[in-house]
Write a structure and sequence with these properties.
21% of the residues lie in helices and 18% in strands. With 573 residues, the protein is of the alpha/beta class. It has two domains: 6-125 and 237-342 and 439-463 and 506-570, FAD/NAD(P)-binding domain, CATH 3.50.50.60; 170-210 and 345-433 and 465-499. It has a six-stranded antiparallel beta sheet with strand order 6-13-14-15-12-18, with helices on one face. Helix 1 packs parallel to helix 11 and helix 4 (151-165) crosses helix 11. The longest helix has 21 residues, at 550-570. The radius of gyration is 23 Å and the shape is globular.
């Protein structure tokens, strides 16, 4: 469809490193603004629809009924922890541990997706805007550096990307979670509505709402023009959606870029480094290693967008050395590689609803999202003495289905007949807490341990701090209180002590900031020291907030691309 022969032409207007969520947006914006753009992807090509092999497969049509064999799990101890999507249906979209090594100086579970589309094929699709407070927290409490932008700088770009991506949600009117450009929300089920009433009554400072999600509840002409259709409520999103109902690079941004005729995608291309010309004081291109032939090639462009996903973007920058930048491209501050963050998903609470009034109720389909409680700690009138920042909750109620038979005692016709009936109503809350930016949480290159392409691997040194520990205790306590107020019998409440990384929300390591002495990027996601290089993925983040981050990456990318093209036309970069 849009895989052209890059070798025929080595020079482009723009190069984008990576084809995931932010890379796809960079490709779309740059091509639509007139730039001939090369997208470099280290993984294999994935064509929308045709390369989703399990997208229509029922469990009984799978060799292992959707589960992975034990030997596969044992060979992949890190990626197996992701649980929700590393299975027989979508395991082929995940990087295998033994094929792409890294070193855990402290436990850090790094999940990757090396293919055209990256992790946009397997993301959870929850898309909350940041609030004004999230851009001000660093300045307020002194952790990290001040964001060089504020909410009002990003608000129009949130609107811009929401309309194209297609975000379903309700306009809730909350200060702590701004409304956006929403398609109709998915509906709460009866138990969730019951929980909402209880929380509204007993906790007036808290809000129980439908999550905002990048699933087309009702497609619009902008989506239909790309062949995208309404969500069918199958909740098989991570297999690849043949309807294009959830947002991915493959279903949305890359096809839009391809329509311009100015897009070239080169898969199987590991970026070795960015080429810096000391006479011109700018980057001139990138060095690429072909993953199949190991042949090295150089491509050239006027502007470079780095969107390889947080840690790989930083790996490329650290490996881009010269006499001007001996410690990595643009790393005058020494901040490159530092201030790694993830989200704290350790607090989990679940229970059952023992009331009988909903025994005759069920719900339609398999809704591809859940319910949400936005941050309520250390915002507005809430002031905690024990910890800084706050957390949100991903929540959901459902009735146990036939799958509850796994692990239960039983056999025969009566047992199977029982499993045809809906089981008990369950409810769960998972906290998603903010992680403070800390210098000691970092990555560095390991030149003694190289991968099969001769690239240095990463040493990852990252751990939770005391603030995250205290936050987790509070999150568990408050979830129990809210659930019990709604008549939910709590059956499990615990800190799972999972390592950083497993949220798959890693960010930081090439942060934005106001001062070139303490940051890598300016307010436009532009390198302070190399004006024609932009980093707009998670690496650019200055703090983590507690919202799912991908929508913010989209908005930052669209904003940076707009600025970059204008500056190119002015001749300033």
């Amino acid at each position: 469809m849009y895989f052209n022969n890059a070798a025929a032409q080595q020079t482009y207007d723009a190069i984008v490193i990576g084809s995931g969520i932010s890379g796809g947006w960079a490709a779309k914006e740059l091509t639509q603004k007139g730039l001939r753009t090369l997208v470099l992807e280290r993984g294999r090509p994935i064509e929308h629809v045709t390369d989703y092999p399990t997208t229509m497969s029922a469990p009984w049509e799978m060799t292992h009924r959707g589960r992975l064999p034990l030997e596969v799990i044992e060979k992949n101890p890190v990626v197996s922890k992701t649980g929700y999507a590393f299975n027989e249906y979508s395991g082929h979209f995940f990087v295998k541990d033994d094929e792409h090594p890294f070193q855990q100086i402290k436990p850090f579970d790094w999940t990757r997706g090396y293919q055209v589309g990256g992790k946009s094929l397997i993301w959870a699709r929850w898309t909350q805007r940041w609030a004004p407070v999230n851009f001000e927290d660093n300045l307020r409490d002194g952790h990290g550096v001040d964001w060089p932008i504020r909410y009002q700088d990003l608000a129009p770009w949130y609107s811009y990307v929401e309309k194209f991506a297609g975000i379903s949600g309700n306009k809730d009117g909350l200060t702590t979670l701004p409304d956006g450009e929403f398609l109709p929300p998915f509906e709460m089920n009866c138990v969730e509505k019951h929980v909402k009433k209880a929380i509204d009554k007993n906790f007036p400072d808290r809000h129980f709402i439908m999550s905002r999600t990048a699933n087309l509840s009702k497609s619009q002409p902008v989506h239909q023009a790309l062949g995208r259709a309404d969500c069918q409520s199958r909740n098989w999103c991570s297999r690849g959606c043949p309807y294009g109902a959830y947002f991915s690079s493959n279903s949305a941004t890359l096809p839009a870029a391809a329509k311009t005729g100015r897009l070239t995608i080169r898969p199987f291309s590991v970026v070795h480094s960015i080429i810096y010309d000391e006479k011109k004081s700018k980057a001139t291109g990138v060095r690429v290693i072909d993953t199949n032939t190991l042949q090295a090639t150089e491509f050239f462009a006027k502007v470079i967008f780095v969107n390889a996903a947080t840690l790989n973007s930083t790996l490329v920058l650290l490996n881009s050395t010269s006499s001007r930048f001996p410690n990595g491209l643009g790393n005058d501050s020494g901040a490159l590689g530092h201030y790694l963050m993830d989200h704290n998903y350790r607090g989990r609470v679940s229970g059952i609803y023992e009331g009988k009034e909903f025994d005759d109720f069920y719900y339609y389909g398999r809704r591809p999202t859940g319910t949400y409680v936005p941050r309520f700690r250390n915002v507005l009138n809430d002031k905690q003495q024990n910890f800084l920042r706050g957390y949100a909750y991903a929540c959901g109620a459902g009735r146990e289905g036939w799958g509850r038979g796994f692990g239960l005692d039983g056999f025969g016709a009566d047992f199977k007949e029982e499993l045809t009936r809906p089981g008990i109503w369950t409810f769960s809350m998972t906290a998603m807490g903010e992680m403070l930016p800390r210098y000691e949480n970092h990555v560095k290159l390991n030149h003694d341990k190289k991968d099969r392409w001769g690239m240095p691997t990463l040493d990852i040194d990252c751990a939770w701090g005391e603030n995250e520990d205290k936050m987790t205790v509070d999150a568990i306590e408050q979830a129990k209180a809210m659930m019990e107020s709604a008549g939910i019998k709590v059956t499990a409440a615990f800190d799972n002590h999972q390592a950083p990384g497993l949220a798959i929300h890693e960010m930081g390591t090439a942060r934005m900031g106001r001062d070139p002495k303490t940051s890598v990027l300016n307010k436009w996601n532009q390198m302070h020291a190399v004006k024609n290089v932009f980093v707009t993925d998670g690496a650019s983040m200055t703090s983590s907030a507690c919202q799912n981050p991908s929508l913010t990456y989209m908005a930052l990318t669209a904003r940076a691309a707009d600025y970059a093209v204008k500056e190119l036309k002015k001749g300033t970069i």
